[in-house]
Every structure is written in structure tokens, then in C-alpha cells.
Amino acid sequence: MEALDLARWQFGITTVYHFIFVPLTIGLSLLVAIMQTVAVRATDPVRKDAWFRMTKFFGSMLIVNFGIGIATGIVQEFQFGMNWSEYARYVGDVFGAPLALEGLVAFFLESVFLGLWIFGWDKLPEKIHLLTIWAVAIGTTASAYFIIAANSFMQHPVGAVLNPETGRAELDPDGGGLWAVLTNVTTLAAFPHVIAGAWLVAAAFLTGVASWHMVTHHNRARQRGLDTPDGAYEQEVATTLYRPTVRFGVVAMVLAGIALIVSGDFQAQIMFKQQPMKMASAEALCETQEGAPFSILTIGGPDAFDQDCSSVTHLIEVPYLTSFLATHTFDAELQGVDDVNAQYQEQFGETVTDIHGNEVEADYRPNLFVTYWSFRLMIGLAVFSAVLALWALWLTRGKGENARTTGSNLFKWFAVLSIPMPFLANSAGWVFTEIGRQPWVVAPNPDDPTVRLMTLQGVSSHPTWMVVTSLVAFTLVYGVLAVVWFHLMRKAALKGAPLPQRDPETDELDTPTLSFGY
Asked: Which alpha helices (H) appear in 238-367, and where do they start and end?
């Protein structure tokens, strides 16, 4: 493998690894903020105590996830100047602006106020302390916006102009400059989709963990007998502590799912206009077609999904659906992969000069296999969340004295199985987004393609052994971090929320604490 391939592998591995933690932090910070708000506003002492306990329970896992997310995120920015120095030289004057804002505004906001939230439980007034976790939630969301703005410039460059003297892209005041970058239509479409995906990740995580404990305490209650003090206590824990959390997580999952569908539809229409090659590849649509169907299953021979689409066979299709997704009309004409490639070769040249000055053949088609299946995994893995939401709603139906919990071990294990699925769906979505843009690292704007850069032109001129060394080192370190993260999160999740204990003399509940047993 050449240095270019290894550099792409390294950036892909570190990015997908880092993004395991990002959506959980974004979504969980908001859910924890909402839970604490419910606790502060509650007038019933039992309800107030239960929500405070759940706030601190899931807050302890938020802290672990946030810390490891920061450690892995810093690596991303270093790579721009190391493995991708030519890319950084070309767009650094533009790309660096939203990254700087992310650090100066969002990161400091979330990190400072997270510290105040962790250590301010007994030191700040209740409502002031509540504001600190809301500041964290706002900070994590703002952080995502600036990162999405930077990435969207790579997908659809705006607000920039190419300086012919330096050969670098610069912010263009006449074209809107930084404001145009931050209000890029691609950003406005991608941001709600990414945030909705983060909410789904956190909601599925919260629902899965709470469901595990609800079923566990329900079964303990049956084993010990509901007519015994221990059995009645276990059932009270299942009903008043974990059941409301499960219901809360389900509501968040439903809202996130709706937001994903609406924002995904809007984003798909924009992608068809801005990056027709990406969307044609997502469908493995090789030839231009009117009323294009949506493929459910596509196979091929030994060379399936090779770049010229020669052996792709669509087995199961939904007629006209791809055209409808692209334009909301059933008979729209969509360009195929081969036709878009021919168009780009005519527009941008059949050869391209790499960083070493060599003329190489230009192929503007991404990896069809990865693009096609990552798009379907992104959508298909969301089915687990939909099933979990419906199942949990049914099993916990009822109100007041008729409120139900369940002892179904099948549901318990399905809830746990559903936890990683939105994580994988989010990762598949980013793989589709980034691989589908290839071979561009900065895709040309159809209206003004002056600012553009191919991936083979953005890599640093490192020798192969140097990239191999850093790739192996990062993979090993990240492997260790993955084990540590999983151990800490599993330990905290299995521990459960601190159970309420009453003082026999005053009949008051003990005060839950934020656990630091790591």
C-alpha cells in the first residue's frame, strides 16, 4: 500500500473511533439536562428524588464518555497538519476558521461548565447548578455545528476564492466569507440530521440500560414475593425509578426518529444536486435513468461493484423510489455513475497531477461497494431502535396504579442488543458521507468549481514506513482506550442508580451522590 492509502486508513480509523463517543456525549448531555430539569421542577418528593438519582447515574457515564472523546478528538486536528499537510496548506485559511470557533467557543463552554456541574452539586444554588448542565448541552451542540460547518465546506465549498498567486483557497469577503461557510446550505441540512442521530444514540443507550435494571428489579420482586418488604421494595424501584426513565428514553427515541426522517429527506435532495456521483453510487445506479427504483438488495459476480458497474445486478427494487427521494417526483431523470464520471473527465480532465508531479489517470468514481452498503446499513440499523421503542411502550403501558413493568428476559437482552445499533448506524452514515465524496477531499461546487482538491493532491509526502508506524501506534493505543472505556461504562451501567434508603428516625430519603468510583 502507498502512503496515500495508509493515510486514508489512519484518518478513517481514528475518525470512526472518535465518533463512537461524540454522539453519545451530544445526546446524553441534553437528556441529562432534561432529567435534572424534571427533578428540580418536581414537587412530589419521591419523584424528585428518583429523577435526581437517574440524573447522577447517567451523568457519571457522560463524564467517562466526555473524557475519552476529548482525548481521541485532539488527534483529528493534528492529522490535518501531518498526514494531510497539502490539504491544510490549500484550505487552511478557510477550514481553520470554524475549527478555531469550535475550540474557542464550544469546547471551553462545555468543558468549563461540566467541571462546575461535577463539583457544584452541594456548592451552587439548585437552579444555578441546573444552568451549568444546560450550558454543557448547548456547548456540545455548538461544537457539532462548527465541525459540521467545516466538513460541509469539504462537501460543498462556499464563501471562498482561489488565490492564483499562492495557489490557496481564501475566505472571500465579497462571497460572504466566514458567514457563508457557517450558513452553507449543506451545513444547515447536515446539522439537524447529525444531532438527531446523536439523540437517537443517547436515547437508545438510556432506554437499554434502564430497561435492563427495570426487568432485573421486577424479577427480584417476584422472586422475593410482592407481599414481603423486600419484594415490595424491589417493585417500587422498578416502577418509580427505572420505568419512568424507560418511558422518557422511548419518547426521546421517537422524536429523534422523526427528526432523522425529515432531515434525511431534506439532506438527500441537496446531495442529489450537489454531489450526483455520491447519490448515484449509493444506489449503484450505473446508467442515467428516469423513474429510478430504490435497490433493496444488489449482488454481482466475482468483480461485483467494480468501478464500471459491469457486474452489478439489482435483485429487489422499489420502483421509482430513488427518483422520489431525489426530487419528490416519481419520473425524475437521475444521472448514473458512468455518465457522471464521463462528465467530470470532460470538465476536470482525464488526468490529474499528484503531489509528486506525476500525471495519473483521473477516475471520479468512489468505491461502489462501500458507498452502497454503508448507505443501507445507516438506514437498516435504525430498525432496532424502532422495535425497541414500540416494544418498551407496550410493556410499560398504563398509568398510576396500573403502570406496568415487565420481567421479560427476551426484552431485557434485546434492549441491550439495541444499544450499539445507533452507534453503528451513525458510523455507517459517516463512512457513506466521506467515502462517497471520493476521490475529492474538497468536492467541487457545481455552481463554481474553482475551489476543489482531489485526495491524492492533499496528502503529505511522507515515506510509507512513517505512516505505517503512526497507524500501528494509534491503533494499539486506541485499542487499549476502547477496553478501558468499555470497562468503565459497563461497570457504571451495571452498578445502577444509587437506590433510595430511608432514615428510620426521620423517614427521609438519603441524598444520592455522583459516583467517581473509577
From this structure: 243-274, 276-282, 321-327, 337-348
